[in-house]
Amino acid sequence: MTYRSPVADILFSLKAVAGLSEFIGAKLDGEFDWETIASVVSEAGRFATEEIAPLNRSADTVGATYANGAVISPPGFADAYRRWAEGGWGGVSAPSEFGGMALPHLVNVACTEIWNGASMAFALCPLLTESAIGALKAYGSKDLLDVYLEAMISGRWTGTMNLTEAQAGSDLNGIRTRAERADDGTYRLFGEKIFITYGEHDLAENIVHLVLARLPGAPAGTRGLSLFLAPKFLVNPDGSLGASNDLRCASIEHKLGIHGSPTCVMIFGESEGAKAWLIGEENRGLAAMFVMMNAARLAVGTQGVAIAERAYQQALEFARERRQGRSAKGGEGMAPIIEHPDVQRMLMTMKASVHAARGICHLTAASLDLASHGRTEAERTAGANRAALLTPIAKAFSTDLGDEATSLGVQIHGGMGFIEETGAAQHMRDSRIAAIYEGANGIHGIDLVLRKLPLAGGATARNEVNEMRDVARAVSERGGADFGATSARLSEAAEALDQATRAMQIWLSSDTESALAGASAYLRLFGLTLGGACLAKAGLAAQALAREGDDSELARVALARFYAEKLLPVAPGLNRIVASGAGAMKSYESVLADSI
Amino acid sequence: MTYRSPVADILFSLKAVAGLSEFIGAKLDGEFDWETIASVVSEAGRFATEEIAPLNRSADTVGATYANGAVISPPGFADAYRRWAEGGWGGVSAPSEFGGMALPHLVNVACTEIWNGASMAFALCPLLTESAIGALKAYGSKDLLDVYLEAMISGRWTGTMNLTEAQAGSDLNGIRTRAERADDGTYRLFGEKIFITYGEHDLAENIVHLVLARLPGAPAGTRGLSLFLAPKFLVNPDGSLGASNDLRCASIEHKLGIHGSPTCVMIFGESEGAKAWLIGEENRGLAAMFVMMNAARLAVGTQGVAIAERAYQQALEFARERRQGRSAKGGEGMAPIIEHPDVQRMLMTMKASVHAARGICHLTAASLDLASHGRTEAERTAGANRAALLTPIAKAFSTDLGDEATSLGVQIHGGMGFIEETGAAQHMRDSRIAAIYEGANGIHGIDLVLRKLPLAGGATARNEVNEMRDVARAVSERGGADFGATSARLSEAAEALDQATRAMQIWLSSDTESALAGASAYLRLFGLTLGGACLAKAGLAAQALAREGDDSELARVALARFYAEKLLPVAPGLNRIVASGAGAMKSYESVLADSI
Question: Which residues of A touch B590 (CB under 8 A)?
Answer without folding.
Answer: 554-555, 558
